């Protein structure tokens, strides 16, 4: 008997959308000087959710000036204890509004409500709680007896975890005594604007947090603004390099969290069922829109066929569709341009001779979708083994010995994350030591925590977010990055 | 020769002059370019011809450093500490030579030069002690909200290209090199252009104090010529611009470094290297690696 | 090498090598997977279907020292017609009783339901093989067509896999035509690695079903344990072509819990296992909650405990 799950949509009623949004500058929503608006769209339905202001040069000036004044007059001089209390307030407000924020996130981003509800939002709140506690304890963080903030932080975040990336940026910046001007991604501005409202509810002093919506040009104006002391960026390696070039000679401190092409290495003595789950979670979590996604599966040859069979069977159970349905595993691709990018790389995989398999799932008529896809017969030379696809596409390679696994895993300009699956503890530590990646998940994948530093080696960027190490990015300590 | 040269009075011994070469991969090659340049004392008296390293020497140094990085980064922290301490021991035995080198190079008096040399030796000792403490100072066990053991450790960034300070020919140099290598990185350092002799003497110490080949590579010549190649080199992981005095060059090198997202330590204005170095230089050339593992039965 | 290449002969060394060569189970990963499946939201038609499916999979159970023929007869009546107010309610799969009450149960349910007997010195299994076989034969002779045996956990934990295996073979033989459910008592095996090994040992020994628990040890059935057992039957089927059932017993009291198990089955082994022939719940109080939920769906309002029978 087939067990068909009836639709179980989360209600949209909890979200109160306005038809248009201004910029959040100096504690108030204001119109952009240029008056240009852009639309933000639900990627699952192509429905326009709201119109959002595009910040121009004047607006960036205003926001940076507001942040500077707030830094010098209020937030900088404020005691750590009081900064902590503001952050605790924000954390609590996020918890109280978490269902609303989760629904809003899924509507604007296309990610399944199961993930925004169970992963994104709990981590967002946790991030503010964790950093709240640091605000009055910075002298114990190992950066000297009197660590000082940097000043005004310009923060530019991507669309894959809109509110979570905001939390990763804003919480440590504020805890350390900086003020911020943050630009959310063009396609996912709504939860950042909701966060502006939370700042208002928390009575956060005006100018401490400013939110500028816009596209790449707004971001460029912001990070290149001479009035900012710190630039924190999460996004593509290409843009990260451009930011690094623009910051050259300015003395601005940088934190860059860029792309990845993580190897997920499965040995023949792995806990296979959990490894299969880890592979699935590694690449199909958030439609693969994850910089640390385990996009290169390295299978020991002796178990390759068995794992691929199990993997395909498991992928057959993934449920693709309405992101607001509580049973959806795979949501929508965030934008048509991202879908085009995925299509292009998948086509290159086919053209270069890798064997494509896609899960047999129905694709909705409207919106942007891509079925979970696995390429076998991939070699290091294929584009799909080297370039970040940022979609639900897994490239499978094989290896014979641990040395070969390390060599292949490290054979990439990236170095953000890696996975190891084996029941042999000694081998885990041997591998973990040799993998050139900032986060190594052993017998698990895609776990995050505010206490756990996150960030890359090599072209995956520098600086860490989270943990005691993450504070260094927002304190005036020599040699911080 | 039957002809006794009249240039040397019979009472004075004719000195044996040293050939000042590069130090790459544990060997002392001449520049592949065949070029040399005149090095004088601070007072302008000719001291030596030093090798004028080229971009190809820089390239060779990167190869040597990458090779050296493997074993050095895999060595135990205890071992690296021992090696750094050994450098201090060997320098101590050649204190007089270094004092003379520094005095001539920097044009300072004997006691000031001695102070520089002593501080340089002490700096090696200080950093030697950090080798097996760094992971405890910069690492952590992280209390994540779930059944996972999670720890973070500092790891060396890889191959670091550094420009030594132009003024402080020995203490400045040591203050740049020691924090790079103590954590397991391999260094390519461009010595002070005008004051390279103490650096060259240091290479002789490095060659005889258990430092594995390729871990420190010393180039002499013009940083402005070599650094653009190093800052844009795909196999260099970080650049230390300490000794770059031209702000435009520093900016351009930072831009070059962006090509492969290198870590950049920007130029420091500091002329006085005698103060407490702190952890900042150590931090600049380590990566934090975080490892997760479930805890279950 | 696939599992089929590695299947053991019955020698103790071969069994040990085989069981210890099975892939390990990472507990945190298995718990996480089971928890993630537990967040499935089963509503409307799917819920109605699941509740009826769950009712039809219940082994309605009484295993108390104070059991009497009267109690068993009452339970059997309920098993046949769980909700007298609604004849569309399916009957349960079986009744499950101690061996001495099998005859009473069989008389009460006739040929309409299976009668399962716990046997082999249930629940501890601490008796000689002869006693266990006698226990089994008597139950079958009295009309049981399903035997729920317990494995010797002491022997299993001592690594005496051959002994456990031989005992299962012997009991299977004693069952004759009756189906054999092998209770692993996972609450005493403690690790999921042991659960996987014991599942394979039982299946190799001839089990028709593998069952989590006696209900007398806590924890009894849990989603992660059931997940690992389902993975074992899935792999066994792929290796041998044989279909083995799973029975989750003990600790499942609410409809919500029962539906989580059905989701676990559906997404681990597929819906071909969603039949009383291949999945069962061992429970006593679960049935009433299923009936309350069924009434809620039928009437549109919440029901109360006075509207379901207590037998």
What would your notes on this structure say?
In chain A, α6 (190-201) links the parallel β7 (179-183) and β8. Chain A has 2 domains: 20-258 and 458-474, Aldehyde Dehydrogenase, Chain A, domain 1; 263-442, Aldehyde Dehydrogenase, Chain A, domain 2 (3-Layer(aba) Sandwich), CATH 3.40.309.10. Chain A has a 7-stranded mixed β-sheet, with helices on both faces. In chain A, strands 8-7-6-9-10-18 form a 6-stranded mixed β-sheet, sandwiched between helices. A 3-stranded mixed β-sheet of chain A has the order 1-5-4, covered by helices on one side. Chain A has 15 helices and 18 strands. By secondary structure, chain A is of the alpha/beta class. Helices cover 38% and strands 16% of the residues of chain A. Chain B is α/β, with parallel strands linked by helices. Chain B has a single domain (36-294), classed as Aldehyde Dehydrogenase, Chain A, domain 1, CATH 3.40.605.10. Chain B is 42% helix and 17% strand. Chain B has 10 helices and 10 strands. In chain B, the strands form 3 sheets. A 5-stranded parallel β-sheet of chain B has the order 7-6-5-8-9, sandwiched between helices. Chain B has a 3-stranded antiparallel β-sheet with strand order 3-4-10. The relative contact order of chain B is 0.17. Chain C has 311 residues and is α/β, with parallel strands linked by helices. Chain C has a single domain, classed as Alpha-Beta Barrel (TIM Barrel), CATH 3.20.20.70. Chain C is built from 14 helices and 8 strands. Chain C has helices at 3-6, 12-20, 27-37, 44-56, 69-80, 102-109, 129-141, 153-157, 161-175, 186-189, 192-205, 223-240, 255-268, 286-299; strands spanning 58-61, 94-98, 114-119, 146-150, 179-183, 209-211, 245-249, 279-283. Chain C has an 8-stranded parallel beta barrel with strand order 1-2-3-4-5-6-7-8, surrounded by 8 helices. The radius of gyration of chain C is 19 Å and the shape is globular. Chains in contact: A-B, A-C, B-C. Chains A and C meet through α9 of A and α3, α4 and α13 of C. β17 (439-442) of chain A pairs parallel with β10 of chain B, so a sheet runs across the interface.
